[in-house]
Each structure stands twice: as structure tokens, then as C-alpha cells.
């Protein structure tokens, strides 16, 4: 008996065998079904790709903010005028044998270590670490005109510059760890930070603890001695990098004990023409202080046949009974009375006691 239909009555009995209708998928239906399945798979793949791209973008931004992203920048896009360098006598360093060795290494093997930069308020890249590497690449590009040296691999610090002192710490950290900075250079960084209007702390002595917190307290004490030395002597100390640790610390101690002699020390240092003479003046200053403490009379200096030095463009040669001054001035054109006043002032300055702070102006 045939099954009842949905209307509730039996199918007509025709006496013929009943056949079920086969519902196979036709070519068009199969194509539509395959297209729908493919579209669903594509949509799921795109959703997954977007999710992964978003995760990668987030990870990249985080890495960039942490300074973990390296980029190749043009050497001409890197500025060095925001932070003062942690090295003194930059021109001497740029032309030193060590710079030539670094250039030879980069020429043979390429730049192995990235520099580090940050964006200033105007969005320009400013150098934080790697002054020697950047300088070597610039020199190589000028010498060879090779495009390989026109770019520099740099790590970009994307952190906000909320703490200006942190910039100084990052700048000196690498060289401090390598012990590549002299005490005078480390002291100069503290003085530069104290003079920076963006740094709230104006006491260079106090900044030493923040800038060099990773160093032993004894080394920080040495740096403070050089801070005092540089701040008191200023440009009169013409070769601060050549002052050894012990000499600088002893001179600073003597200056604090006898501040009345600082003015005469400045004058003596300003008149020297070589590093050796500067070291001798500093050593004599310490010896005089020791003799003063012990009450000993100052011994006569070992007489030299002659010595020479420069004051600006004027060359002075000193020997027994003679002080020769050579300059571009025409002394015959100077009125006699003015020249006589200058000579009298010169003689008065020679006979001036070391403890007298008065300075005679020629």
C-alpha cells in the first residue's frame, strides 16, 4: 500500500510499480555549491589573514617603540645637534688611527653594529649612539662615492622623550661599559646635561649619580673631581682628555684646598702650547700645594735653555734674559706711550705674587 501523502489521502493505485524521484545535483548546482564552499573558505582565510596582520602590526609597533626595529637610513638624514657628544676633541677622534681602523673594518665587512637614533620634536632623526660609526661611513662615502656607504643601519628609539636625562644615559652607556671614555669626557657630559634647558636638574655634581649610576661609587667620585676641574678651569684646560685620573683628582683636591691659587693656575694653563707643558703646570700646582702644607720652601726650577708657546696668533719664545714676541702686528705703528704701558704691565704681571687674584690687562 502506498504511503499517505501530506493531504491525508492515499495515492491512487495504478497497478504500476512505484518509483522514488532521484534528486541528484546537476552541473549548475554542483558549480554553485563549489563556488559557495570556495567563497566561505576564502572568507575564513581572509579573516584569519587580517587577524594575523593586525597582530603583526601590533608586535611591530611595540618592537619599534622598544627600539628593536632596524632600518637603513641615509647618512644625510641623521643629525647630531640635539645631544652634545660624550667625546671631547671630536676633530682629533675623527682623524685618529682608531678611526682609520674602523673605516677599514667597515670597508671589508660592512657595518656590523647599528647606530641608535630618535626623532626630535620636528620629526628629524637625531643621533643617540654610534657617532664613530656614522662618522666613518660619512668619511668613506666622501672618499669613495660608493652608494654602499651612503646608508646606515639604525635602531630607532620610538619612546617619548619624557626624561631628558635618560637620553644622556643611553648615549654614554655603551662607551662607559667599554671603558672608552676618559674621566674628563664623562664629566663634560654631566656639565652639558646641567646646562641643557630641557633638564630640570642644574647641578652637574648631582647629575653624576643619575648618568653613571651603574659605575662604582669610587669612579663616580673621580668624575665629580673632574666636574669641578673643568667647571673651574674652563677653556684654559686645553687638553682635558690627556689629564690622567690621578693627576686630575689631585689637582681638584689642591684647588679646593687653595682656591686663591686657581686664577694663577688658569693663566699658566692658558699660556702653554703643548700637552706636555700642560701636564707640567698641573704637576707643579700639586707640588706647590704639598710644599705649602709641609712648610717647605719652594725649590728652584730646573732651568731650561728656552721654551715656546702661543697666545692666540702670537708666538712667544722665552730664554734667559730674552722674551721674544712674534706676531702679525706692526709694532712700529703702535704709539710709543701705549707700547711702554704694555711693557710695564707685562713686567708687573711677571712679578705678581701667585696668591694675588688681580689680573693685569695688557
TrEMBL record:
SUPFAM superfamilies: ParB/Sulfiredoxin. InterPro entries: Chromosome_partition/occlusion, ParB/Sulfiredoxin_sf, ParB_N, RepB_N. It comes from the Bacteria. PANTHER family: CHROMOSOME-PARTITIONING PROTEIN PARB-RELATED (PTHR33375:SF1). Residues 77-144 form the ParB-like N-terminal domain. The lineage of its organism: Bacteria, Pseudomonadati, Pseudomonadota, Alphaproteobacteria, Rhodobacterales. GO terms for cellular component: chromosome. One of its GO terms (biological process) is chromosome segregation. Residues 1-28 are annotated as: Disordered. This is ParB N-terminal domain-containing protein.
